[in-house]
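Memo to structure team: turn this sequence into structure tokens by end of day. - J.P.
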Amino acid sequence: MIRVVLPAHLKMLAKVSGEVELEVVGTASPASVIDALEERFPMLLGTIRDPLTRQRRKFVRFYACERDLSLEPIDVELPDDVTRGRSPFFVIGAMAGG
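Reply from structure team:
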């Protein structure tokens, strides 16, 4: 079971509170976690990654085990602590400005 922490605006859209727990088929990666998330919560389709390119949106970041995975390949394997449910996978809404 993969634990996912979503930003507040995506929790509201998906009508969830707290962490989301997901079953991921095959290798656990940011891509497979987002696949499972979009399958379970279709209203999130296109909010985290572009539906055509399937790449992370610019103002969304991925973190796991205190590591920024945002610039890693989207199919990079998640750390063992995440796949074992000991640590969550974070989807963070980044901010810009001065």
